[in-house]
Amino acid sequence: MKKTLISLMVVMLVVPVAWTGSLADVAMDDQVTVSESILHLNGMGLRKKLWIKVYVAGLYLEEATHDAAAAVNAAGKKRIVMHFLTKKATKKKMDAAWVEGFEANSPTEYKTLEARVKTFMDYFGDMKVGDVIECTILPGEGTQVTLNGDDKGIIEGDDFGAALIRVWLGPKPPTEELQKGLLGVV
Question: What is the reported pTM?
Answer without folding.
Answer: 0.88
